Structures are given as structure tokens and as C-alpha cells.
Amino acid sequence: MHEQQHIAFFTATILEWKHLLKPDKYKAIILSSLRFLVENKRVKIYGFVIMPNHIHLLWKMEELYKREDVQRDFLKYTAQQIKFDLKQQYPAVLEKFRVGAKDRQYQLWERNTLSVYCYSTAVTEQKMDYIHNNPIQEKWHLAALPEDYHYSSARYYFDNVDEFGFLTHYRD
Q: Which of 65, 84, 95, 121 has the most neighbouring CB atoms within 10 Å?
């Protein structure tokens, strides 16, 4: 069976674990990009969480799209949009992401993302629990309950509310 037929657990981290995704407007960039990918039938998104310095997704590529290409485009687009805002609004913050590499002046995402295929419902559910419990961990304490954290798919699963309009239940 082809790997890409399985849901993948994907993690992307901001360079040096900096808390760049703290502002809601940067979380909104991530959300609009995810919505675009779903609306353009590149992916199905089953779960997500946007943390201050990283994101986790449970997603599956649609048949015509390669995982590497979608990940690259998603990370490149979100980085560009955030960089445009930083350049205009917070140039000093942007300087913290200067890398001076051959192919780029700035780097917002770490180069090594994590992508693990979930070969069973049990693994998918374990990853989903991990994603949804991330914001309530003591080190983050972004919410008291998973479903109270807005930038996650938890409410979709706990309360059957899809505020984002792009989620698919992992059992569908």
C-alpha cells in the first residue's frame, strides 16, 4: 500500500524554537493557508494545533500531490506572508531570523520537519490526543481544556464544531 494513502502526522518548528506564532495574525496566516490547501483539493486536514513556536497537523495528501511538494509550498508561503508583515511592522524581529544562506536572507521555519505516517487508527488517535493536549501542558498553559484553545481542531472533535470550515473527521 502506498504511504501517501495514510494520514501523516506533520510537525514544523519555528527557527530556534522562537515564539514567532504567538500573534493571532500569524496564526491566521497558517489557517488561511490550510484552508487554501483543502479548498484546492491538495490535502485533507484531520487535526491541527498552532502553538507559539510550532505546528502539528494530521493530514493526507490528495492523490495528485506529493507530500514533499505540499509541505514545501505550505512552509514557503506561510514564511513569506509572515516575513512581509515583519518587514513592515517589526523589522527588528525579522533581523532575528537573518541567516545569510546562499538561497535565502531569512529563515522562519527549521529545515528539518517531522512527518510520520499513521498506519492504524490507534496511532492516528494517539497523535490526535497529543495534538489536542499540547496547549494544556503545564509548560504552555494556553487553555484549561483542549477544546478551549481556539487554534486547534479539539472543538471539532469534542463539541462537533468546525469553526474553520476545512476539517475532515479522521474516521471519514
A: 65
What sections of the chain are H helices per DSSP?
24-39, 67-89, 91-95, 121-133, 154-158
| 68-100 tens-digit pLDDT | 999 999 999 999 999 999 999 999 999 999 998
Hey, where are the domains in the chain?
3-158
In whole angstroms, what is the distance from residue 65 CA to residue 140 CA? 34
Q: What is the pLDDT of residues 103-125, one digit of tens each?
A: 889 999 999 899 999 999 999 99
The CATH number assigned to the domain with range 3-158 reads 3.30.70.1290
State if pTM tops 0.85.
Answer: yes
